[in-house]
Amino acid sequence: MTTPRVLHLWLQGRHIGEIERLRSGRPRLRFDPESLRHWGVGARPLSYSLPLTPRRVESPELEIYLDNLLPEGALRTQLEREHGVRPGDALGLLAHVGQECAGAVQITTGDELPVPRLRPLTPGEVDRIVLDLPTLTSPDGESITASLGGVQSKVLLTRDGDGWSWPTGGAPSSHLLKPEPADPRAAVPRIIELEHWAMRVAARAGQAVARTEIGRFGGRLTLVVERFDREDGERFHQEDAAQALGIRPGDKYEPAAGEGRLRRLATGPGAEAEDPAVFRDDLLRQVTFRLLVGDGDAHAKNYSLMNRDGSFSVAPAYDVAPVFHVDPRFGDFGMRVDGQRRLARLGREHLVAEAESWGVPRGRARDVVQDVAASVRSALESTADLEGFDLVARVRARVDQVADGT
Fold first, then answer.
1. How many domains are contained in the chain?
2. pLDDT score for 141
3. CA of 75: how far to CAs of 134, 180, 290, in Å?
4. Each residue of 339-379: pLDDT tens digit?
5. What confidence tens digit (pLDDT) does each residue in 289-325 have?
6. What pTM, to 2 d.p., does this model score?
């Protein structure tokens, strides 16, 4: 199908604007006058990077926001081929898969929302869908109308009682299923188990974190993640830090130079939180936890913000894995902390100095870091080790190092 020249943008079921493809191929967004009246000029209900304006928006931030709604890597390539979309054409692909995106955003080709529908799946169909990943296979040729950013292969499904359904027509999904990569040479071995282990530690340490469980589908080990931006079929809006800060997916790892991204989050969206001090504390807690467990993949797409009508809060942690302790490729933190990226060198004083740059008083920053360290140490006492990795001892040593101020 030829991509329509105009796509319709929806937020929480409200028509918020139209996205037009220019002759150059670039997108141009026009916000609805009604949206301007509802939220007000300058409000940021869609994205921190896209304040509402009566002017037409043709900024790089618009292109980046749309691009970050889509998956990366092999799954995106497959979707582009399946729908006859040229590589890199975000608008063209969103015309097909934009009906169910991260947060409360939907993108449609018509000026009305489609009728949502859940197609129940048999256990055998779920097994086949998971076993086929990274090739995304729909049941009975059902349309693939959902999209979620990231590079890991995954499928979005809706849990329906004890079973699963395929969401179509913009029906909200409730979970994402991420199987162990088919080619272990291309990923961290046992990454699914590693992530689930870290998420259990996070939950026991009192961190706000997405709920996970381990399942097997067709014998393939799979991480089942409950979406924190969905509840009882209702969408809650969120965006990742890359969208909020105008960072392209390919630039998600912070470079050695430039203004710190964590500081930009804390002083940008954080300043527009209902309580900026709570926002900064929550961000510091999540950064500290990721550092303590050795999450060497904590880049801009692995932090997210909840957005309630342009008031921001730090979203629960997700995609946390102690890869620093098991794979030498992950020696860097995905974001700079007080100018430092090397995980082996990062300690309490880096965290405190980073938080001070956000406006957190030094004493408060030290208290937050120490509190997270103590809660992780306690959580490790009740968390079984992952066979073959000695993670409890390694993370405990890291906690002691940070708590001692080194």
1. 3
2. 78
3. 6, 15, 27
4. 999 999 999 999 999 999 999 999 999 999 999 999 999 99
5. 999 999 999 999 999 999 999 999 999 999 999 999 9
6. 0.95
Burial 359-383 (b: 16+ CB within 10 A, else e): ebeeebbbebbbebbebbbebbeeb
Residue 275 and residue 145 share a domain? no
- Domain closes at, from 85, 108, 131: 108
Q: What are the CA-CA distances from residue 135 to residues 66, 81, 103, 153 (Å)? A: 23, 11, 24, 8
DSSP character at residue 113:
P
Quickly tell me which residue has 């080619």 as its tokens: 183
Please list, in sequence order, all residues whose beta carbon lies within 8 angstroms of the beta carbon of residue 274, skipping any fewer than 6 positions away.
308, 311, 313
Per DSSP, the three-state class of 222 is: strand
CA separation for the pair 17, 74 (Å, rounded):
31
Phi, psi of 331 (to 5 degrees): -85, -15
What is the separation of C-alpha 392 from the centre of its chain, rounded to a whole number of angstroms?
Answer: 26
- Expressed as residue numbers, the domain containing 158 is 117-230
| Total residues belonging to the chain | 406
DSSP-assigned beta bridge partners for residue 215: 222
What is the distance between the alpha carbons of residues 309 and 136, in angstroms, rounded to a whole number?
Answer: 34
